[in-house]
Task: structure prediction
Amino acid sequence: MEYKTEEEFLKNYDPNQFDRLSMTTDILLISVSSKKQDNYRKTSKKMMSILLAKRDDYPYRNMWCLPGGFLNPKSETLEECAKRVLKKETNLSNIYLEQLYTFDDINRDPRMRVVSTSYIALVDKNRLDQKISENVSWFDIILYVEDENSVHITLDNGKINFSIEIKKRLKEKTTDRYQFVAEKNDHLAFDHSIVILSGIERLKNKINYTDIVFNMMPEYFTLGDLQQVYEVILNKKLLDPAFRRIIANKVEKTEKVQTGEGHRPSALFRYKK
Result:
């Protein structure tokens, strides 16, 4: 049927002619924070952590997943959905949030066709005033081993320890894009192991050309602490002179010093806005 005007088309339009799907948002909340040391004279060790929620219903009951939820198509955008879910699941708001990827594998959810737009959120969890929900827990990444074809990640929250393994296949050589396939995954629901790896890869790339790392830093910090955060994210040791060149125009020295750490007081810096 041919319509003469858009008004006529919309009046006769049947939305049921297309298959429907559900949209969700999943939030990868990442923190790089100091792990407490038994000996106060030791330098605090930085750990990358992610926040996971324990599912209390099927599918994947009693398994862990990223905080997430279904989009209300009539009243919110994807970002508004992500913020609502983050507030509900973690009691967190007003923190850094950016869209990661859209995950649309046909069989990613056993209930129905569900497409998920994931987000990265960054925070320094050691300085959070809000109390997180009872069903969520911070998991430290205690092992991150990567080679040309796979990535092995071990997560630990002090009570539970489990590993995930993801295979990598080069998808597009000109842009260095990879396709990820979950191989070992007994504790994480849906395709969230792939979301986690995708988010970490994004963070590793962006730290080299943006100031994104400062969303995980306190207002004042030592250069040693900042270097540790870079090293944890990049998963490699950085030479001091090279690191100082990287951050030379990003920070400024203050008159404050760090004390009470069991070693000589260190100058404190802050992000140069």
In short: The longest helix spans residues 192-206. The chain has five helices and twelve strands. Helices lie at 6-12, 78-90, 192-206, 223-234, 240-247. The chain has a mean pLDDT of 88.
